[in-house]
Hints:
About 30% of the residues lie in helices and about 25% in strands. The protein is α/β, with parallel strands linked by helices. It has two domains: about 1-65, no CATH class; about 70-245, Rossmann fold. The strands form three sheets. Strands 5-4-3-10-11-13-12 form a seven-stranded mixed β-sheet, with helices on one face. A four-stranded mixed β-sheet has the order 6-9-7-8. Strands 1-2 form a two-stranded antiparallel sheet. Helix 1 packs antiparallel against helix 2 (about 20-35).
Amino acid sequence: MKTTLQVALYHAAKAASKLNIAIALKLLYLNVTGRSIHLRLPNSDIRLSLRGQSSDYHAFYTTFVRNDYPRIPHFSPRLILDLGANVGYSALNFAAQYPESTIVCIEPDTANFEVLCRSTSTFARIKCINAAVHSDAGLEGTLSGPNSLSMQLNVDRPINPGDQTTRTVSIDQLFSEWAAPNTPILVKMDIEGSEKAIFSKNLAWLPLVNYLFIEIHAGCWPTVVRALHPFISNCDITGENLCIELKPDAKISPPPNPPANPLSPI
């Protein structure tokens, strides 16, 4: 994805102040030419490759320059679920912020998953799973979208030859495999609209979460807010996300009653 020159220059200036001038110039080069770049994160041995004509630039900028996933004060998660991990920048950011945590990355897109595995290969605490998150595990769905940052899952339509397919995992399943009792847990969720299905049922995991970073997409707000409302202790806006502190003693709201059928006899 390219940006306009004015936005590219603004981003470069922000990157220079946040990171360093070398990274800023490389990001500007990627924006202007659309060609891939290679860079090393400051004060780190982490080397990254940002693909030209892809969503890697946006993911890098929002994570490492704009800081959409800031460190949460006075909180040390032992488990982080990175749901919609893309190419691994958020996972690397979490690994630097919380060096004692195990980070489980879920990413359905095959090309993104390959980059994710390369980006995080030197971190034994980062585990990568090629799957999509859904309210139900074991489904097969298709992926489609305008770019690698916006791949949407569909489990309802027939699968045709040439479709990119993926399997689904549920958050309940992830918790049963990775969460020990009384584990401080952080969940990051950027799953391009699948949050509507996630928050519609099977919410036994929700009282176990301490903090949630979530990007809520169009059409999902009523379902997500209704499910989260009893649990919200505090909420901040961080870039494209909400950072929500959850109350562990809240109760899950029951599903809404179906609307009365006006044709039913009284």
